[in-house]
UniProtKB/TrEMBL annotation:
<dbReference type="Pfam" id="PF00037">
    <property type="entry name" value="Fer4"/>
</dbReference>
<keyword id="KW-0479">Metal-binding</keyword>
<protein>
    <recommendedName>
        <fullName>Ferredoxin</fullName>
    </recommendedName>
</protein>
<dbReference type="InterPro" id="IPR017896">
    <property type="entry name" value="4Fe4S_Fe-S-bd"/>
</dbReference>
<dbReference type="GO" id="GO:0046872">
    <property type="term" value="F:metal ion binding"/>
</dbReference>
<comment type="function">
    <text>Ferredoxins are iron-sulfur proteins that transfer electrons in a wide variety of metabolic reactions.</text>
</comment>
<dbReference type="InterPro" id="IPR050157">
    <property type="entry name" value="PSI_iron-sulfur_center"/>
</dbReference>
<feature type="domain" description="4Fe-4S ferredoxin-type">
    <location>
        <begin position="42"/>
        <end position="71"/>
    </location>
</feature>
<dbReference type="Pfam" id="PF12838">
    <property type="entry name" value="Fer4_7"/>
</dbReference>
<dbReference type="GO" id="GO:0051539">
    <property type="term" value="F:4 iron, 4 sulfur cluster binding"/>
</dbReference>
<keyword id="KW-0411">Iron-sulfur</keyword>
<feature type="domain" description="4Fe-4S ferredoxin-type">
    <location>
        <begin position="2"/>
        <end position="32"/>
    </location>
</feature>
<feature type="domain" description="4Fe-4S ferredoxin-type">
    <location>
        <begin position="72"/>
        <end position="101"/>
    </location>
</feature>
<dbReference type="InterPro" id="IPR017900">
    <property type="entry name" value="4Fe4S_Fe_S_CS"/>
</dbReference>
<feature type="domain" description="4Fe-4S ferredoxin-type">
    <location>
        <begin position="105"/>
        <end position="128"/>
    </location>
</feature>
<keyword id="KW-0408">Iron</keyword>
<keyword id="KW-0004">4Fe-4S</keyword>
């Protein structure tokens, strides 16, 4: 299974470069709400939320628009997606995106853009 992994959960400095890279690559604008990786701060601790490829989004999609590709990564068929947002609601990591101006949802496809942008080097695409 190909997926994005946080290799050191304590090293994130919340610089947001991963969020910038993701939202810019897919929406051409920096907007944390449009990033498929989320940096959250809670009680002074920083947590990097990434798609764990659990498949909950696929199980709730009424259109069958989300499926696993040959590498095990869940992807959205934009021709089938109706933008209902059920996948966004189901995502346990809070990293599914449904931008208001987009007719379809988006999610991490393990492309590695965020990993390349991370100055701490704690993001990695792994195949298991």
């Amino acid at each position: 299974m190909k997926k994005l992994v946080v290799t050191d959960k304590t090293a994130c400095k919340a610089c947001l470069q991963c969020e910038v890279a993701c939202s810019t690559a897919f929406y051409k604008v920096f907007d944390p709400d449009k990033s498929c990786i989320r940096i959250v701060e809670k009680n002074g601790a920083v947590k990097t939320n990434v798609c764990i490829q659990c498949g909950k989004c696929a199980r709730v999609c009424p259109e069958g628009a989300i499926s696993q590709n040959a590498k095990g990564t869940y992807i959205i068929n934009k021709k089938l997606c109706v933008g209902c947002g059920k996948c966004v609601e189901a995502c346990p990591m809070g990293v599914m995106v449904k931008a208001p101006e987009s007719p379809v949802a988006s999610k991490c496809i393990a492309c590695g853009i965020c990993a390349k942008a991370c100055p701490m080097g704690i993001l990695e695409i792994q195949e298991k």
